[in-house]
C-alpha cells in the first residue's frame, strides 16, 4: 500500500535523525576528551571525520525534500518533516563546534585555566542535546521545555567562566609572574574564551532542537522566539 510506504518513510526519517544525533554526541564527547587530555590523535580524528557527518546531513536533507515533493505531507506529518529538517541542521552545526573544540585541543600547550571546569560544562551541554533528542523521539513536549530551562544554568556558568578568564588576564603581570609572553598569554585567553563560547552555542542548538520538537508535537512556537 502506498500509504504504508509513506508512513515507513516518515518513521525511517525519524530513526535516521536519531542515529545522526548519536554520531554527533559521540564526536562531541571525543572532542571534550581531547580537550581534557590534550590528546592530539583524538583531536585529529574528530577533525578529519567531520566529512562523514556532512555527508549524512546531505542524505537526510534529500530525504526530507523527497518526502515533501513526492508525498506532500500535511498537518502533523508536515511538521515532523519540517522539524526533522531543522534538527539535522542543528546537529550538523554541533558537529562543526566539536571540530572547533578539537582544534583548540591541538593548540593548547598548558593548562593555565584548570580552575575553569570545562569538563563539567561540556557534560551538561551533551546531556542537553541528548535530552532534546529524547523529547523528539518520544513526542515529549514537557521534556522539550525542560531543555530550555536547563540552558539558563549553562548561560550563567559560561558567563561566570568568561569573567574568571578576563579577570585573571587583567590581574596577571605576565612574564614576571607566570613566565608567559604577552602573545602566549593572549593565545591562552583567546582559546579559553572561544571554548566557553562554543560550548554555550552547543547549548543553544539543544534549545533549538527542543523548540523544533515543541512545534512538531503541539504546533507551538513558544521556544522559537
Describe the structure.
With 225 residues, this protein is mainly alpha-helical. The chain is 86% helix and 0% strand. Helix 1 packs parallel to helix 4, helix 3 packs antiparallel against helix 4 and helix 5 packs antiparallel against helix 6. The longest helix is centred in the last third of the chain and has 37 residues. The termini are far apart.
- Unreliable runs, pLDDT <50, ≥5 residues? none
Count the helices. How many? 8
Structural class: mainly alpha
Overall radius of gyration: 20 Å
Helix coverage percent: over 70%
> Average pLDDT value?
90
Major beta sheet summary: none
Please count the beta strands (DSSP E, at least 2 residues each). Answer: 0
Features:
225 residues, mainly alpha, 8 helices, 0% strand, elongated
What is this entry, summarized?
By secondary structure, the protein is mostly helical. It is built from eight helices and no strands.
Mind sketching the topology for me?
Layout (H helix, E strand, L loop, with lengths): L1 H36 L2 H9 L1 H22 L3 H33 L10 H21 L2 H31 L3 H4 L3 H37 L7
Helix pairs in contact: 1-2, 1-3, 1-4, 1-5, 2-4, 3-4, 4-8, 5-6, 5-8, 6-8
Amino acid at each position: 500500500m502506498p500509504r504504508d510506504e509513506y508512513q515507513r518513510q516518515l518513521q525511517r526519517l525519524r530513526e535516521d535523525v536519531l542515529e545522526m544525533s548519536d554520531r554527533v554526541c559521540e564526536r562531541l564527547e571525543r572532542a571534550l576528551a581531547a580537550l581534557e587530555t590534550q590528546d592530539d590523535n583524538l583531536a585529529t580524528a574528530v577533525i578529519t571525520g567531520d566529512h562523514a557527518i556532512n555527508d549524512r546531513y546531505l542524505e537526510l536533507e534529500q530525504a526530507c525534500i523527497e518526502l515533501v515533493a513526492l508525498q506532500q505531507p500535511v498537518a502533523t506529518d508536515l511538521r515532523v518533516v519540517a522539524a526533522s529538517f531543522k534538527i539535522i541542521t542543528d546537529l550538523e552545526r554541533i558537529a562543526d563546534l566539536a571540530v572547533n573544540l578539537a582544534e583548540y585541543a591541538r593548540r593548547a600547550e598548558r593548562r593555565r585555566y584548570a580552575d575553569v571546569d570545562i569538563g563539567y560544562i561540556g557534560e551538561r551541554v551533551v546531556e542537553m542535546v541528548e535530552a532534546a533528542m529524547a523529547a523528539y523521539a518520544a513526542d515529549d513536549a514537557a521534556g522539550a521545555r525542560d531543555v530550555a530551562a536547563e540552558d539558563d544554568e549553562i548561560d550563567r556558568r559560561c558567563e561566570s567562566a568568561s569573567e574568571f578568564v578576563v579577570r585573571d588576564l587583567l590581574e596577571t603581570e605576565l612574564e614576571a609572574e607566570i613566565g608567559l609572553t604577552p602573545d602566549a598569554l593572549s593565545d591562552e585567553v583567546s582559546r579559553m574564551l572561544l571554548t566557553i563560547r562554543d560550548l554555550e552555542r552547543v547549548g543553544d542548538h539543544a534549545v533549538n532542537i527542543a523548540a523544533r520538537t515543541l512545534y512538531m508535537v503541539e504546533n507551538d512556537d513558544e521556544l522559537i522566539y
